[in-house]
Design goal:
The structure is a single chain. The chain is an alpha/beta fold. Helices cover about 45% and strands about 10% of the residues. Helix 15 packs parallel to helix 16, helix 19 packs antiparallel against helix 20 and helix 21 packs antiparallel against helix 22. The chain starts with a helix and ends with a helix.
């Protein structure tokens, strides 16, 4: 075994050479043109009064298209506790009230109590009020994963203003569309992003983070190989949320989008059951086998714990979201290494990275007593002017939903930089995708649960890839009310099943092969032992040519001596010392021949 100090010396020399040849700049590639243009989202081919089928749009007959100039009166915003108690909440509340006063509107916040949970308390209260027709509030904050769940309790914005979503990034605005109804407008955006340990990358000859999945795998493999030589067995190539949660669904959506696929497409069709997705899952199992993903993280790590692991220097890459960037910047000073932010790598032809859209939207409550006033407040809270003012105040804590912000110098300055790299540049190189929230509507809870369960089953080895993917496709089709299809997936799931294990249907062949190997090994070992014993026996014979004949046979007599005994006695007396020396040598050889081991 090579001593650790010696291995360290060899590796240090190799790293010095790599570091000397590493690209010193840039820290991130400019992989594509800035993604700052967007196609306005419209209810096309429908309009404000009708759906695309020609049927009248629900609520359009009572909607007032002049609400932006005629709305007035009180408007109550139902506010989750975490938003009402945030650092800048007081300033935002005062700004809302001041703007409302200028528009003949009286805006108040109805705050949820301390200890309340958004999903368990806020969402359930809205649903209960909606079922009973209660009208104690007008505007609803909608976390992006709950758009489908709350869609039936929200007014259709397009029934009031068919241009309401114009200017927002289309893919983000589409996250508020359920069954051809724009039920909420995007107010705050967050999406997946990659953290990387720049010290480690540069140490192993890489001057920039990975652009593609192959580059990601290459870098992680090289770094892990070197760290293993230094006996750093705590290091993982990547860490992220791998426990059953919505963060896992976002991560999976990014992985699938990175190869140009989707779980459910924009038309609502289930599209997850493909060879491309099967091969992606196979790649994930390979990452588990090689240590790029730590198997102990599967089913356990959260967004918070994975971030802590990265900041402790125990992962080369980590998946987080833009919403966590300010906290990372403030806490990373104690990390003890340089780090950076980059888009999540992908194999998209555009060269862009990927990121799953998260964040908040705002909608008008269906039973509001002042729908015109509520709709005006909703458009104000999601407007360019209001979002820009929040960004200039909050900085990187909030990403706007308007792509044009990435060309605004003051906004880019507010976002700031990480390791001399503008966050505006990083964000502009991300192709934002969506989870199938709006496509699934109220059924999304079942969709995300099925996706999470399948991925964890594959990663833990509970189910083989192809059967698991076929079962997921079938399950999603049942949830979405679509007919079953026969899938043909071209992947050998009997080989890539789980980390370090093979499938049972190949167990007999594998055992037979192992027996053959053992048998051949045994034959070779026995043959070598016999050969060595023969060689030793030859040495014995060659070293004692005057040995006695076998018992029962007479040896030849010397002339004139009769039975030859006097000569033998003389010979014995003269050579007794020599015979004793050779006897010891022969006994040693014989003993050696008895102890031959291979």
């Amino acid at each position: 075994m090579i001593p650790a100090l010696y291995k360290s010396g060899i590796l240090s020399l190799a790293l010095a050479i790599l570091a000397d040849t590493a690209q010193a700049a840039p820290y991130i590639h400019r992989r594509a043109a800035l993604t700052t243009t967007t196609r306005p989202l419209r209810p096309s081919p429908g309009n404000r009064t009708h759906y695309s089928t020609g049927q009248p749009r629900l609520g359009s007959s009572t909607a007032d298209p002049t609400f932006l100039t005629t709305a007035s009166g009180p408007v109550t915003i139902l506010t989750p506790h975490e938003r009402a108690t945030a650092v800048h909440a007081t300033q935002l509340k005062e700004a809302n009230a001041a703007w409302g006063a200028s528009q003949n509107l009286s805006i108040t916040w109805k705050q949820f109590p301390e200890g309340s949970d958004y999903a368990a308390d806020y969402v359930n209260q809205v649903l209960q009020a909606c079922r009973t027709g209660q009208s104690s509030f007008d505007v609803v904050w909608v976390e992006s994963a709950y758009v489908g769940a709350l869609s039936e309790c929200l007014e259709d914005v397009w029934a009031w203003d068919e241009a309401a979503a114009g200017g927002h990034a289309e893919v983000v605005a589409r996250g508020g569309v359920v069954a051809e109804r724009l039920v909420a407008l995007p107010a705050e955006l967050s999406f997946g992003i990659l953290l990387y340990n720049s010290d480690l990358l540069e140490r192993y000859g890489y001057g920039y983070p990975p652009d593609t999945l192959n580059e990601f795998e290459e870098m992680a493999t090289a770094v892990l190989m070197g760290e293993r030589m230094l006996e750093n067995y705590k290091m993982a190539g990547w860490t992220g949320p791998l426990s059953s949660s919505e963060d896992l669904t976002s991560t999976v959506a990014e992985w699938i989008q990175s190869i140009g696929s989707s779980i459910i497409d924009d038309n609502g069709s289930v599209t997850v059951g493909t060879t491309q997705v099967a091969n992606l899952l196979a790649r994930l199992t390979r990452w588990l086998e090689s240590g790029i993903i730590d198997p102990s993280d599967v089913g356990q790590s959260t967004l918070t714990s994975s971030l802590n692991r990265f900041l402790a220097g125990q992962a080369l890459f980590a998946r987080t979201t833009t919403a966590h960037v300010p906290g990372i910047i403030s806490s990373a000073s104690s990390a003890g290494f340089d780090w950076g932010i980059a888009p999540v790598p992908s194999d998209l032809e555009s060269g862009l990275g990927v990121g799953t859209a998260e964040g908040w939207l705002v909608g008008t409550y269906r039973h509001s007593q002042n729908k015109a006033g509520a709709m005006k407040v909703v458009e104000y809270l999601t407007s360019q002017e209001y979002q820009k003012a929040k960004i200039l105040d909050l900085g990187a804590a909030m990403v706007g939903t308007y792509p044009s912000f990435l060309l605004d110098r003051s906004i880019c300055q507010a976002y700031g930089t990480v390791r001399s790299t503008s966050l505006c540049m990083v964000y502009s190189q991300v192709s934002v995708n969506r989870r199938p929230v709006s496509q699934a509507g109220a059924r999304y809870a079942n969709v995300t649960a099925a996706v999470q369960a399948t991925v964890l089953e594959v990663m833990t080895g509970a189910t083989a890839i192809v059967p698991a993917l076929k079962a997921l496709d079938a399950r999603l089709r049942v949830i979405m009310g679509q007919p079953a299809v026969e899938l043909s997936l071209e992947i050998d799931d009997s080989i890539v099943v789980r980390p370090g294990k093979k499938s049972l249907d190949q167990l007999g062949t594998q055992l037979a092969g192992l027996c053959v190997v053992l048998a051949v090994t045994a034959v070779v070992v026995v043959g070598l032992r016999r050969t060595q014993r023969r060689e030793i026996e030859k040495q014995l014979m060659a070293g004692n040519p005057g040995q006695n004949p076998p018992q029962g046979q007479a040896g030849p007599s010397s002339p004139g001596t009769g039975d030859g005994q006097p000569e033998m006695r003389e010979a014995g007396s003269s050579s007794s010392k020599q015979d004793k020396g050779k006897g010891a040598e022969y006994e040693a050889l014989i003993d050696k021949s008895e102890k031959i081991e291979i």
